[in-house]
């Protein structure tokens, strides 16, 4: 067992695409410059010209390859066309059908396709259409969670499914440090994808209060309270804040549509009103009642003790994992 790069990158460490705009050019470039796979987050509406600007801005901050994540539950055809024309290294896909046509289009543009899956059936479909890697998301993950299986039960099943094919399997969900990285490697993963750990970095576009809450709080809850109208049927894991504790039993027939406006944000250049229960996490521009907004986090948030530079997160993962493998596993043999 050792650490290897994947998909042409130095390391098998992926920074998850953090919505709606938390993984912006600064964070993605910092991860890329450290040898990891940084992923921008595509807006949830068609805006190909803006997307080109976002990609080009990132290219001014790094000469290393990077990628972008697209949620297929939202309009995306024009955005994906722009992404392929800009020839980013990786197109990460989530919450929708990773079709043969889409994979073929990406490969013609020399873009690698990496879907994120939450069950074995999705993984089987991904293998069948010839994807370049698969991210396996466990139920422990923060943010929107597509499956019900824990990472340690689902991951080895996908590894066995892939078998000898040249399709790296990347583990996601509750991994924040080298111990999680090595545990995932021992189950057959070739890389890891971290979200919450990269929210709590200097370069992330999360509001400072959101970052601070990730250090202060230790408990999370899997719920569907937030964003029911905007993204139906999309459960998520959030910090157990006092606001969430008060509203965790929100009746199933209620959603954000008729709720009061509690704040405002500029998201991907567009000014937006934030209603209570809207599901929008606070970014650097957010004003209003931030304590009443969702703060997505994985079950391992209690292991995050400080806000760090993103490049140091990558460096620590690599060096501490190497040390752990050397001390715990080499000595055992």
From TrEMBL:
Give the matching SUPFAM superfamilies: Inosine monophosphate dehydrogenase (IMPDH)
Record keywords, A-Z: Flavoprotein, FMN, Oxidoreductase
InterPro entries named among the record's database cross-references:
Aldolase_TIM, NMO
Q: By its UniProt entry, which CDD domains does this protein fall under?
A: NPD_like
Q: Which domain of life is it from?
A: Eukaryota
Q: Which Gene3D superfamilies match?
A: Aldolase class I
**Example of a GO MF term:** nitronate monooxygenase activity
Q: What is this protein called?
A: Nitronate monooxygenase domain-containing protein
């Amino acid at each position: 067992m050792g650490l290897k790069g994947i998909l042409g990158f130095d390391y098998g460490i992926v920074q998850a695409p953090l919505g709606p705009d938390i993984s912006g050019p600064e964070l993605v470039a910092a991860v890329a410059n450290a040898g990891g796979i940084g992923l921008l987050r595509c807006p949830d509406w068609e805006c190909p010209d803006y997307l080109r600007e976002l990609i080009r801005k990132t290219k001014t901050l790094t000469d290393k390859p990077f990628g972008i994540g697209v949620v297929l539950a939202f309009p995306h055809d024009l955005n994906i066309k722009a992404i392929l024309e800009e020839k980013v290294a990786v197109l990460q896909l989530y919450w929708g059908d990773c079709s043969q046509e889409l994979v073929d289009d990406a490969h013609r543009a020399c873009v690698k396709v990496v879907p994120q899956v939450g069950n074995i059936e999705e993984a089987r479909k991904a293998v069948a259409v010839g994807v370049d890697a698969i991210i396996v998301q466990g139920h422990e993950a923060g943010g929107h969670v597509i499956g019900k299986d824990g990472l340690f039960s689902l991951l080895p099943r996908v590894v066995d499914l892939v078998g000898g094919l040249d399709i790296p399997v990347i583990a996601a969900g509750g991994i924040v440090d080298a111990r999680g990285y090595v545990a995932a490697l021992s189950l057959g993963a070739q890389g890891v994808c971290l979200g919450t750990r990269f929210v709590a970095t200097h370069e992330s576009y999360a509001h400072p209060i959101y970052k601070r809450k990730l250090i202060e709080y230790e408990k999370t809850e899997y719920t569907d309270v937030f964003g029911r109208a905007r993204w139906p049927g999309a459960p998520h894991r959030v910090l157990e804040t006092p606001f969430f504790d008060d509203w965790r039993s929100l009746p199933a027939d209620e959603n954000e549509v008729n709720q009061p406006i509690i704040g405002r944000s500029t998201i991907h250049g567009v000014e937006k009103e934030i209603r209570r229960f809207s599901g929008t996490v606070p970014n650097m521009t957010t004003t209003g009642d931030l304590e009443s907004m969702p703060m997505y986090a994985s079950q391992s948030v209690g292991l995050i003790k400080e806000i760090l530079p993103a490049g140091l997160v990558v460096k620590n993962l690599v060096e501490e994992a190497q040390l752990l493998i050397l001390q715990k596993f080499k000595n055992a043999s």
